[in-house]
User: Which sequence fits this backbone?
């Protein structure tokens, strides 16, 4: 029983960690792309998908949905 509880806690921590990484990557991309990058939209996607998609600022396909035309 204790092992099961420990395993469940570890899974929760790992999920929280991937969401944190995702949000930090959004912030990094916002710094790199400035007004061309929708940081809030990126962070919202991190929460919505529970960190399953982690943006990589150097991989345009992973951040394309958060880029916009500067107005």
Assistant:
């Amino acid at each position: 029983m204790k092992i099961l509880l420990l395993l469940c806690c570890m899974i929760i921590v790992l999920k929280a960690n991937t969401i944190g990484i995702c949000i930090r990557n959004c912030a990094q991309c916002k710094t790199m792309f400035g007004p061309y990058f929708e940081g809030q939209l990126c962070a919202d996607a991190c929460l919505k998908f529970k960190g399953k998609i982690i943006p990589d600022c150097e991989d345009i396909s992973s951040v394309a949905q958060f880029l916009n035309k500067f107005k």
Q: What stands out?
A: Confidence is low (pLDDT under 50) at residues 6-10. The chain is about 65% helix and 0% strand.
